[in-house]
Design brief:
Largest sheet: 6 strands, mixed
Number of domains: 1
Strand content: 15-25%
Number of strands: 14
Helix content: 25-40%
Oligomer: single chain
Radius of gyration: 20 Å
CATH topology: Aminopeptidase
CATH superfamily: LCP protein
Structural class: alpha+beta
Distance between the termini: 38 Å
CATH architecture: 3-Layer(aba) Sandwich
Number of helices: 9
C-alpha cells in the first residue's frame, strides 16, 4: 500500500474521532463481513466515496484573530431515546498548530438566544434552533467566534465503540446511578468502580452520560473529555488493515448520525490538523460553579414546576467574567 493511500486512510479515521468529540474509531467486528452480494456492492460504493473525500483538495479553514479555528461539537441521544434532541454534550473545540483546547459548557446554562426568552442551552436544538444559531449563542457566552458546528448522535458513538472493541479508561471514583434512564421510560441502573476499566459500548455511553458522581454535570464533562483522549490514542495505534476496514464499515453510519456545516474540502483540511494533533499538549476546561466561580446555581419557575439552571455569577446575561476566563485560557496556552 503506497504512502499516500496509507496517509489518506489514517486521516479519514482521524476525521471520525473529530466528529464525536470529536469523536472516535476501529476495526471490523467478528460478526460483520462482506458475505453477501449486496454487502459487497455496498462496500465498494462506500470505498469509492471514501477515496473521493480523502483525495479531494483542501480549503483554508477560518481562524480568529489569535489564529485558532473554533468548532462547536454537540452530542444528542437521537431517535429511540428519551428527549432525543437534547444536546447534553456541548464542547467548544479549538485548533491551532498541533494543539487543541476543549471547553465544555454545562447543559443547564440558562440563555436567551433571542427575544423569545430564556431556556436551557441544551434545549435549543430540540426546539428548532439551527446549528449556526446555537454557534452564535456560544460565541456570546465565550467571546470566541464559532467557525463551524457539528452535531453527533450517541448511536454513532455506540457503533464506533463496538468497532473499536471498547476502550480503556481510569475511573476516578466509584459511580452509582440507580436512576439511569432505560428504554420505554424505564430505569437501567449503572455502577462502576474506581480504577482502570475496559468500557464496552453500553458501559461507555452510560459512563459519559451519568451525572451521579461527586461533581455532577461537571464530572460528566470531564469524563466526556477523557473518553475523547482515549479514543484518539487508540486510533493512532491502528494498523493499516484495521483502519481500512473501519472506514468501509462506518461510512453509512457516519452519514446517518452526523450533521455539520463543514464542506468536504474543509473536512480535508481538518484531517491535516488531526493527523498532527498532540493530545498531551492539549488542554480541557469547563465553565464551572467553583475553581473558578463562573456560574451559580438557581431555580426558575416553569409550567411544570421549579427548574434547575445555571447562570453567570456576574449576573444573568453578563458574560464579562467568562470572557476573561476564556481569553486567559488561550493567551496562556
Amino acid at each position: 500500500m503506497n504512502r499516500k493511500l496509507t496517509e489518506t486512510l489514517k486521516n479519514i479515521g482521524l476525521l471520525t474521532i473529530f466528529c464525536f468529540f470529536i469523536f472516535l474509531i476501529f476495526a471490523l467486528p467478528k460478526d460483520r463481513g462482506f458475505e453477501t452480494e449486496s454487502s459487497i456492492k455496498k462496500s465498494f460504493t462506500n470505498l469509492g466515496s471514501i477515496f473521493r473525500i480523502g483525495l479531494s483538495s483542501r480549503s483554508p479553514l477560518f481562524v480568529d484573530e489569535d489564529g485558532w479555528t473554533n468548532v462547536l461539537v454537540l452530542g444528542r441521544p437521537g431517535a429511540g431515546n428519551p428527549a432525543p434532541d437534547l444536546t447534553d454534550t456541548i464542547i467548544l473545540v479549538s485548533f491551532k498548530d498541533e494543539k487543541a483546547s476543549f471547553l465544555s459548557i454545562p447543559r443547564d446554562f440558562y440563555v436567551a438566544p433571542d427575544s423569545s426568552g430564556y431556556r436551557k442551552i441544551n434545549s435549543l436544538y430540540a426546539v428548532g434552533y439551527k446549528l449556526n444559531e446555537i454557534g452564535e449563542v456560544i460565541s456570546k457566552i465565550t467571546g470566541k467566534t464559532v467557525h463551524y458546528e457539528v452535531i453527533v448522535e450517541l448511536e454513532l458513538l455506540r457503533k464506533i465503540t463496538e468497532y473499536l472493541g471498547g476502550v480503556n479508561v481510569y475511573v476516578q471514583e466509584d459511580i452509582s446511578d440507580p436512576l439511569f434512564p432505560g428504554p420505554h421510560f424505564s430505569y437501567s441502573p449503572f455502577e462502576i468502580k474506581k480504577g482502570w476499566r475496559h468500557l464496552d459500548s453500553e458501559t461507555l455511553l452510560k459512563y459519559i452520560r451519568t451525572r451521579h458522581d461527586s461533581e455532577g454535570d461537571f464530572g460528566r464533562m470531564k469524563r466526556q473529555q477523557q473518553v475523547l483522549a482515549a479514543m484518539k490514542n487508540k486510533i493512532e495505534n491502528l494498523n493499516q488493515l484495521q483502519n481500512f476496514n473501519l472506514m468501509i464499515g462506518l461510512y453509512d453510519d457516519f452519514k446517518e448520525h452526523i450533521d455539520t456545516d463543514l464542506s468536504l474540502k474543509e473536512m480535508r483540511s481538518f484531517w491535516g490538523k488531526l493527523k498532527n494533533l498532540d493530545i498531551s499538549s492539549s488542554k480541557a476546561h469547563s465553565l464551572t460553579i467553583k475553581n473558578p466561580l463562573l456560574l451559580k446555581e438557581s431555580y426558575v419557575m416553569t409550567t411544570s414546576g421549579r427548574m434547575f439552571v445555571l447562570w453567570p455569577t456576574a449576573g444573568l446575561y453578563n458574560y464579562t467574567q467568562i470572557h476573561s476566563y476564556v481569553k486567559n485560557i488561550y493567551e496562556t496556552f
